[in-house]
From TrEMBL:
Pathway: Carbohydrate degradation. CDD domains: RPE. GO terms for molecular function: D-ribulose-phosphate 3-epimerase activity; metal ion binding. The active site is at D36, D180. Belongs to the ribulose-phosphate 3-epimerase family. This is Ribulose-phosphate 3-epimerase.
Amino acid sequence: MTDFRIAPSILAADFARLGEEVKNVIAAGADMIHFDVMDNHYVPNLSMGPMFCEAIRPYTTAPIDVHLMVKPVDRIIPDFAKAGANIITFHPEASEHIDRSLGLIKEHGCKAGLVFNPATPLHYLDYVLDKIDMILLMSVNPGYGGQSFIPGVLAKAKAARARIDTYTAQTGREIWLEIDGGVNTANIAEIAAAGIDTFVAGSAIFGKPDYKAVIDQMRAELAK
Ligand SMILES: O=C(CO)[C@@H](O)[C@H](O)COP(=O)(O)O
């Protein structure tokens, strides 16, 4: 039985009440907090830096999953680790030295992962799987919340799942497979069937008044 994780993206939360939003969404049954970092350079938007991460850290003991949409990558990694991040992922196209960036995340005591845009091939995993704890597949082009899910990513999810399962069978080491963008109660079951175990959802959760009702419905869909 797969362990499914739901990771609300606080990009869609009320920024004026961020700490409270974090606390409420975890109380509503979320497993971790997805934290989107946009730099108006690698992606066309600007969001939150390490100070925001530090500010929300006291509001939950759940993992904070930091998705870096920034270029360059390495300079900001130690700052997020110090600010309380538990998982840090980055886009391979944004790093000059992918292996070094993964190593840097680990050296700072965090779980590490790579993020794949809808058109980015999985071959970046080829020589670094042993340093990866989570693979994040973007199911929208990064930069904005509230976009529609790109169905072509389901084929990539199946390919990534096959690679993970082979690797886990050989090594006994688990790698989480996360998806991000356009996830909602209507499509979560189909996405899980493609092999995803960790679901980022922003507007689908924070866009509704009752976070628990949405998360419960997501879990009910996953249990079907
Ligand atoms: O990283 C991103 C967008 O770049 C995502 O985390 C979105 O914030 C997800 O938002 P929804 O599509 O669920 O509204």
